[in-house]
Write a structure and sequence with these properties.
With about 230 residues, this protein is an alpha/beta fold. It has a single domain, classed as 2-enoyl-CoA Hydratase, Chain A, domain 1 (Alpha-Beta Complex). About 45% of the residues lie in helices and about 15% in strands. The protein contains nine helices and nine strands. The chain has a six-stranded mixed sheet with strand order 1-2-3-4-6-9, with helices on both faces. Helix 1 links the parallel strand 2 and strand 3. Helix 2 packs parallel to helix 3 and helix 2 runs antiparallel to helix 9. It is globular and about 50 Å long. It starts with 5 loop residues before the first strand and ends with a helix. About 45% of the residues are buried.
Length: about 230
């Protein structure tokens, strides 16, 4: 059965053009923090129809995703972390485009979830932080940030773990645009991309992921597996 905190619906009324999938992170009491079942449901949703354009957002504009749920035991957070890397790989390799709508904070795995999307439309209140759980020496975002911001800015964000507000995120290339109504802007963009067809978009994505992005993703996944296991 679908996880109750991941709402995935094909072309829900008023949320996007026919033929698009909208995935909503709906666990507001935990700022959409991810547990094992929620992360598996998210992965299944992205895999279901690889050619369909996807909009991923939160019904609560106060939070996009807080990453892995810190209330979980370490063993479960390790599983969430590993599943998230699998999800990122599906997102960047599926031929259908993925558009993230970020209106509130995106932290850790949630920031990576937004970065793994092909395009990011932010609201004025969007903010990002590339931080892992306390007490764990995890690499967070080293696989994707250099491709978006360049190496110097990426290392700044990863090593300092500081907050990045929407305006700075736009300057750095973390988001593609800032809109007062980002959900509506994303739906229009998804319709434009849908009209182009998945074939050409898939080719562009394949080329864009060549040259090290997938290798860095897999290296970060392996490093964090080792960190969770204590090696």
């Amino acid at each position: 059965m679908p996880h109750p905190s991941v709402l995935a619906e094909l072309s829900p009324p008023g949320s996007g053009p026919p033929g698009c999938l909208r995935i909503r992170l709906a666990r507001p009491e935990r700022r959409n923090a991810l547990d094992v079942g929620m992360t598996r449901a998210l992965l299944d949703s992205f895999r279901a129809d690889p050619a369909v354009p996807v909009l991923i957002d939160s019904p609560d504009p106060r939070a996009f995703c807080a990453g892995a749920d810190l209330s979980l035991p370490d063993s479960e957070r390790a599983v969430v972390s590993d599943l998230l890397y699998e999800c990122y790989e599906v997102m960047i390799t599926r031929p259908g485009p993925v558009i993230a709508v970020v209106e509130g904070p995106a932290v850790g795995g949630g920031a990576q979830l937004a970065a793994a999307a092909d395009l990011r439309i932010a609201g004025p209140g969007a903010r990002f932080r590339w931080a892992g759980p306390p007490g764990r020496d995890l690499a967070v975002g080293a696989w994707v940030l250099p491709s978006l911001t360049g190496r110097g800015a990426a290392l700044d964000l990863i090593l300092t773990r500081r907050w990045v507000e929407a305006a700075e995120a736009l300057r750095l290339g973390l988001v593609n645009r800032i809109e007062d109504e980002p959900g509506k802007a994303a739906a229009i963009l998804a319709g434009d991309l849908l009209a182009r067809g998945a074939g050409g978009i898939g080719s562009v994505k394949l080329i864009a992921s060549a040259g090290g992005l997938l290798e860095r993703l897999r290296a970060e996944r392996a490093a964090n597996r080792a960190a969770w296991s204590g090696r």
